[in-house]
Amino acid sequence: MDFVSSSFNSTLGALTNPATAQLATDLYKGTDFNSLNVLEKAWANWYLYWGNPVLATGIMSFVLHEIVYFGRAIPWIIIDQMPSMRKYKLQDEKIPTAKQQWDCTKSVLLSHFTVELPQIWSFHPICEYFGMATHEVPFPSLSTMAWQIALFFVFEDAFHYWAHRALHWGPLYKHIHKKHHEFSAPFGLAAEYAHPLEVLILGTGTIGGPFLLCAFTKNLHILTVYVWIVLRLFQAIDAHSGYDLPISMHNWIPFWAGADHHDHHHAAFVGCYATSFRWWDHFMGTDASYKRTRARQAEKKRQAALAAKAAEVKSS
């Protein structure tokens, strides 16, 4: 924390440089730096350091995406190598090989640098066009960020349901969505393993909510969008993990989808089209196969437990 503060102070000390002083005046006119908290000072320091808001936002956005995506996927790679975790694997007979994971990683990285990087780089000017705050400080309140992110989850889930369902229509599936279904038993790294057009189509649901909210309210900070993106990446990677752990969110939030829901989609190739929540599939009846499958599995476990109990009584 002291390092951040001293770094910020040293940057402000460089305001004797006319160019830096002018940038600070342009970006932070009327800002009382003494009233900012440590994170807000670090945020301003970042923009002053780069000296170009578009460059600063572009670098931060892309680096954040890469760190979170691969940082969240790595634990699932480790879990795949742990036999003790097989009991939580939804398709325990299908463990991704090292080759599959490496091929997936190469494809995802190619997509990140050729498809997503241009989108991320253009994010700042698009944000400013819609009136979104980027370099500004102080940050919005936690309550404001919370209700805005909740809206983004609801919007993205609805958009994803209908767009994803459309991608399962014959020609769209054959030429676009089929790539994502190469893995009938998904794993974390495969969350963004998709055709470039699919990345563009489904990505619209992720950034569409923030853009619409900002266009109508002019009240949105890019920090809120970053928190939303981080949570969305966690959701997507966990949904593709292939594991249903006791701590998985759907076990304590009944309408949460999670891997239990999405893994069936990859196994059956149809149904369970939503991302975060279960309600669209429930109301549209596109989770019927999922419910039948889970019911059969539950009954099989019940019968196995009864048989084990009977065997135990007989042996005693």
UniProtKB/TrEMBL annotation:
The keyword Transmembrane applies. It is found in: Membrane. This is Fatty acid hydroxylase domain-containing protein. One of its GO terms (molecular function) is iron ion binding. Keywords: Membrane, Transmembrane, Transmembrane helix. It comes from Pseudozyma flocculosa PF-1. Its main location: membrane. It comes from the Eukaryota. Residues 150-286 form the Fatty acid hydroxylase domain. The keyword Transmembrane applies. One of its GO terms (cellular component) is membrane. One of its GO terms (biological process) is lipid biosynthetic process. Transmembrane segments: none annotated.
